[in-house]
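S.,

As promised, the calcium ion run. Input:
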Amino acid sequence: MQQMIRLRCSFRISCIAFVVLIASPVAADVMTFGAAKDATLYESLTGSLSGGGEDGIFVGRTDTTPGANADQRRGLIKFDVGSIPNGATINSVSLRLSVTRAPSGVPPTTMTLHRLLGDWGEGTVNPAGQGGGGAPAANGDATWLHQFRPGDLWNSPGGDFVSQASASASVGSSGFATWSSSSQLVADVQSWLANPAENFGWLIHGNEAVVRTARKFGSREFAAPNSRPLLTVDFTLPPARTPGDVNDDSVVDAADVALLAASFGTTTTANNFDVGEFSGDGLVGLADLAIVQRNFSAIGLAPSPAAVPEPSALFLCIAALAVIGGGKARSLAAAKCCTR
Ligand SMILES: [Ca+2]
Ligand SMILES: [Ca+2]
Ligand SMILES: [Ca+2]
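Predicted complex:
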């Protein structure tokens, strides 16, 4: 008995003394996304034009007479970012579009991204020729007046969006236009991860005060993949949860042993770390305790292998700790299981 008590005390001291911080490496990653949908809002007082199925997104002001109420173009674009792992912290976001057509001899123009406040229909309308004027809209399409024609109207003609720009880019007459990362672009994507139902994408807004600022960008329907929209997201994953860390505080210590003891002998779903199931067999048992023990030793702070207690002694330790933690009944049940 004396020996048992000594052993129990010895390992209990170990449990308390070897409070170990498991410093999992932080993983950074980059993912790229093609557009999930994109379209153009063609200015039209009757909301009769669309072009979501064409190979371009038109943004800016054309060279028609200002005031004709037909010369403004705004782009709509959305990316599904739901494949970014849960819990990721977004570090940077950038959008690249390819300029596939521009008025000749015009200077670069500034275009801005604005987070959209309502959903919209892309549709499949594909105007003939090079586009730029839209074509008769079909039901379900977004238009200058509609989120989804014919019933769903924007609150404001030309789309509902956050007035403050999330990002800004100088757009030339050819090549790529890049909206570099900004704190607001990052915030937009981070918010979409948390609330996917509120991801309506961005509205691309040009300089509508000046004629001939319009550009045509390659849409997701563009033939050459390299000229389609591309969103690049850099993010950091949370540290991987260490097997043995029942309470998910990045420390494998006596608290985890006590929690494991509290559910010792119970069945649960495989790899339910929250109750101490690490071995994947759906049972909280000695295999899991061994994993806890291994993580103590993994960083070289545990006793030498010869001094590692046998499972029965280990259990005495966790049972004692569980009693301290209030898990007496469960621990007694586990004791039976353990000593069978
Ligand atoms: Ca499209
Ligand atoms: Ca822990
Ligand atoms: Ca197990």
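Residues 2-17 form the longest helix (16 residues). The helical segments are 2-17, 183-194, 254-262, 286-298, 311-324, 328-339.

- D.
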